[in-house]
Amino acid sequence: MSFALEVKEEIISHTFSIEQRKSLLNGFVRNNAEMIFSNGKEKLKLVTISNRIARSLLSFCKEFFVGEIEISVIQSQILKKQKTFQITLIGNLNIFLKEIGIYDENFEKQKFSFNNFKKQSSLLRAYIAGIFIATGSVNSPETTNYHLEVQFKDKAAAIDFVTITDLFNFEFKILERKNNRYVCYIKKSLMVSDFIKLIDASQAVMAFENQRISRDVYNNINRMNNIDISNQTKALAASQKQIEQIEHIKTQKMFHLLSKKAQILAKLRLENPEAPFSELEYIMNSHGTPITKSGVSNLFKTIKKISEEV
């Protein structure tokens, strides 16, 4: 099962109030339903690839629709032979569409209106959840590409969705695709996580955040390891250069030009070619030669200068 389907099934498995069920159906029907005419009858067809979602939608429809309901399962013969569940409402659809807020008092289809939700956040969130269940998708948190999108049949519906989600501080962008469909999408990981939280899929949020945090920790560890390797490489190169300078001074029989401390440090460097400055500092101090890390650095600068002069 895809992560997007897990999110949708978690949403639909919650307990909703009557008004929330209407709001969810409103969002789903607006973006999923197809009105057809067959044998002189008006029919409304809803489709989903999830058995759980189909059962919940059937339960919701039975509550607000008076008429005949047909249920069919279509088995695909390609790819993974995926099943599609189809719910068809046959009868007086006007009353049903008015009941869930899609038709107005005159049984005319009305545009989305905030008044339908009486400024109740829970109803607005149920409406957004219905839209996502209908045409939404989200990438698995296991991928490195964070992406959540919702598809619409026309630009006006996409703009309405952006307007709604702006109330919750989301920044959906609209993209027109070649098949005359419009996509509203977000790519920021925190925004994707917050949207899943908005539509009340808490388990999916935890899975998403755990994966995201694990990836961030792994990336930080890799970054630190790369920095350590780079620093070690630089330190070894510097150490080799220091050894060459000391050997040059000794070859020219000018070792006596170094101060006592510099001579002690030079001998330690030859004995400990991979030791960092902090280790050389510790060895010198432990053998009765007081010095600081910056002092070690300054002495190597002196050794370099004398090596160049001789």
Automatic annotation (TrEMBL):
Residue ranges of the TM segments: none
Domain Sporulation transcription regulator WhiA N-terminal: 20-103
Source organism superkingdom: Bacteria
Residues in Sporulation regulator WhiA C-terminal domain copies: 221-306
GO molecular function, one term: DNA binding
Stretches assigned to the WhiA LAGLIDADG-like domain: 125-217
GO biological processes: cell division; regulation of sporulation
Gene3D superfamilies assigned to the protein according to its UniProt record, in alphabetical order: Homing endonucleases
Keywords annotated in UniProt: Cell cycle, Cell division, DNA-binding
Described purpose of this protein according to its UniProt entry: Involved in cell division and chromosome segregation.
Family: Belongs to the WhiA family.
Protein name per its UniProtKB record: Probable cell division protein WhiA
Gene from which the chain derives: whiA
